[in-house]
Amino acid sequence: MIRLALVILCACVLTGVAAAASPPQLLHPETLKAKGPATYRASFKTTKGTFVVTVHRSWSPRGADRFYNLVRAHFFDGVTFFRVVKGFVVQFGISGDPKVAAAWQQASIADDPVKASNTPGTITYADAGPGTRTTQVFVNYGNNASLDTQGFSPFGRVTSGMTVVNHLYGGYGEQPTNMQQQIATQGNAFLRHKFPKLDHSVSARISK
User: For the segment 57-84, what is each residue's pLDDT rounded down to a tens digit?
Assistant: First the structure.
């Protein structure tokens, strides 16, 4: 289900689409290779409030390191929670800047063995098959332990503000999920026009 919801995008980026300026390092994924701490927290300020993810590197080392670098580089600032399916997952991680989305589409990381289960509140990468994890992640709303045997490896858990996550707007169902190519190539301008009620991350920062 998660794999079917992650589209492999073409390398082209549509021209003439306005996008907010992003930190320059986000255009160069190869430079963001820092090793994350054994345990760290990432605080997400959203349009519905704040939630905190506690990441455990021992659960999924490559996934934890990638998330650490993304948060430190402010990748998730302005990113929209485009797939909100109550009882299942909330998915996000497509940059609102088309140039950044294009830069990361092939910046995949190798898979991690599944050491923790996809229970409510855990956070995991979406993918399109083995070896395709890039920037999209999802928080499990329900007990999705069936994803464990499919290779989905949680790297952390929402430890504060799960009520906020539960209240992210989900009235569009799977409609935005089926338009991931448009989201990536046209960015937040497309989402604000087509799905104006969706919530988004205002900022995400490593917190103590």
Answer: 999 999 999 999 999 999 999 999 999 9
